[in-house]
Amino acid sequence: MTRVLGIEGTAWCASAAVFDANTDDVLIESDGYAPDSGGIHPREAAEHMREAVPTVVEAVLDRVDEEYGDPAEALDAVAFSRGPGLGPCLRIAGTAARALAGALELPLVGVNHMVAHLEVGRHRAGFDAPVCLNASGANAHVLGYRDGRYRVLGETMDTGVGNAIDKFARHAGWSHPGGPEVERRAREGEYVELPYVVKGMDFSFAGITSAAEQALDEGTPVADVCRGLEETVFAMLAEVSERALSLTGADELVLCGGVGQNDRLRDMLATMCEARGAQFYAPEPRFLRDNAGMIAVLGAAMYAAGDTVPVEDSRVRPAFRPDQVPVTWDAGTPVAGPAAETDRVRGAEAVVELDPPDAVTKRRVRKAYRHADLDERLRRRRTRTEARLTSEARRLGVPTPLVRDVDPPEGRLILEHVGGADLRTALSESRVRAVGQHLARCHAGGFVHGDPTPRNVRVGDAGNDHERIYLIDFGLGYYTDDVEDHAMDLHIFEGALGGTADDAAPLVEAFEDAYATAGDDRVIRQLREIEGRGRYQ
Question: Quick check: is 451 catalytic?
Answer without folding.
Answer: yes
